[in-house]
Design brief:
The protein is about 35% helix and about 30% strand. It is of the alpha+beta class. The chain is globular, with a radius of gyration of 15 Å. It is built from four helices and six strands.
Length: about 130
């Protein structure tokens, strides 16, 4: 089973989160909650189903320009995993349930967004394969 999630905005990166945490732990918590809630709400609105087996994720970050460093962009996976967990799409975001994450970033102009493909690992004779 494969499901797709289209997140209509660019999620904050590590630099924004660190700046918020340096300002105040309360401000940092607001930034994390805001980004996690966006993923949660988008997953609920999209009516994503619940995965009963471990999954892999393929995440594409569509950026408006090439200014952000890749490590700053890729840190948004924390918000994505926590949001999917909070929405009930995945049971947990630990290694038992997340078997792999592939990520890429692309420059697309002003229509920045994030695309997430969640793939449940197939089961063959009681053994999980991918």
């Amino acid at each position: 089973m494969t499901q797709e999630l289209f997140i209509p905005i660019r999620l904050d990166g590590l630099n924004e989160y660190i700046a918020a945490m340096n300002s105040s732990r309360y401000v940092g918590n607001k930034v994390k909650k805001y980004n996690t809630d966006i993923v949660h709400d988008t997953a609920r609105f999209s009516r994503l189903g619940h995965f009963t087996e471990p999954i892999t994720l393929n995440i594409t970050y569509w950026e408006p320009n090439a200014r952000r460093d890749p490590d700053n962009i890729l840190s948004a996976k924390k918000f994505i995993l926590d949001g999917l967990k909070n929405a009930g799409v995945i049971t947990n975001d630990g290694q038992k349930w997340i078997k792999g994450i592939t990520e890429q970033w692309r420059v697309c102009g002003p229509e920045d967004h994030v695309g997430v493909h969640v793939v449940m690992m197939e089961v063959d004779n009681g053994r999980k394969i991918n």
